[in-house]
Amino acid sequence: MDKLNDKKRNQYKEHVVKYLVDRNLRAFRETFLELHPTDQVELFESMDHPQRKQVLLFLSPEEFSDVFQGLDIEEQSEVYHLLSFQYAVSMFNFMSADDVADFLAEIEVDNADEILDSMDQEEAKEVIELMAYEPKTAGAIMTKEFISVSISSQAKEVIKELRETAPEAETIYYLYVVDTNQKLAGVVSLRDLIIAEPDVTIEDIMSTQVVSVAEDADQEDVARLIGEYDFLAVPVVTPEGLLVGIITVDDVIDVLEEETTEDFGEFTASKGTTDVSLTAFTAAKKRAPWIILLMFFGLITANIIGQFEETLEQIVLLAAFMPLIMGTAGNTGTQSLAVAVRGLATGSIEKNGVWRIVKRELGTGLMLGVVCMIVLMGIITVFYENNWILAFIVGISLFLALSMAAVIGAIVPLIINKFKIDPAVASGPFITTLNDILGLLIYFSVATMMLDNLV
After folding, report:
1. Across all residues in the chain, what is the average pLDDT?
2. In the prediction, which pLDDT does 422 show?
3. Which of 263, 355, 374, 417 would you label with 274, given CA atoms 20 to 30 Å apart?
4. With contact defined as beta carbons under 8 Å apart, do 135 and 164 qualify?
């Protein structure tokens, strides 16, 4: 099934909606079920409330389970309330255990226990196991739908088993090998299995160099590992080495999207408000603490200006360059912050060392400071009647401010990370405000020292 382009998608939508309105069950099912699951989800999302209810009448719980899994958590919550209890239970039986666990945990379903009691016993057991793990760990995002084979099995036996169990597995490209105690012993690829002699044992063709993750490993670390090795999946093991699940690359993509959204929210001091479906009141309530905190930092900036009131009174022209000093220093600090946060997220800082990134950002800040100082001194000299003293004060202040801003932007997230706090909380607005304060302090200190030469 190929994914539709925009033109075909619109055509299919028109047909599907028409079949729904006409109550044409056969035509709807033939058209809708031949679509790629992603297109099914997009079509369903574009439908209004009555049309969605009609879809639920036309599709079985098994057929609708793929659509439900493709919806985001907010949409799932809305659709869930359209389902009868029995329809929902039956649908959950056909869904991946990790998707069911995510749904029940995310929206805190009131009758979750009743749902689990009514589900297939084996399916419910897997869901309960997954819900027991701490959020954002390998155990919480792994799937239980995987194929493990015995180390003593023959290739022909495994191939026969695959024909029966493969449709229910998340992936069959890697087969994980366990010993008699269910401990992870190796891995065999589907390619190696197919080309192997029928009577050869799995132990003879498997690789014992298996990269695995602990069940309590952080999901970001898992995503980084899969990206580093270009895996399609990675096994999850207990401290005793027991194989309990696998994490596939599609799970990792979801993790990366989630973590990126979270970091972006932290970085811009808008955590929890990046979802455009939130109301204005909810968004304002979540953003208010950061804005109020930054407002108090702004009072420090105002206090610094007040401390140098005499300097400003004597040379009012200094005020014209305050926004320039503050803005340029803030921008430089934010750039260094982005480098540091990204380096921590990808693990490149751990590889290259903390001091290397700090030295690099210091060097970058110094060079940027020199370039900006030279350009600005030239401009001021031309436009302010060869006032070399003013040009020097503004230029050297900008040089010092940019050098400091680059180092601060790099160091602050590193320090925060040492305390096991998400470094993205060193948000852009926070770093900008901090560098505003330091930039003004440097600017007025230099101006005050050279006041006699300037007057």
Report:
1. 86
2. 66
3. 417
4. no
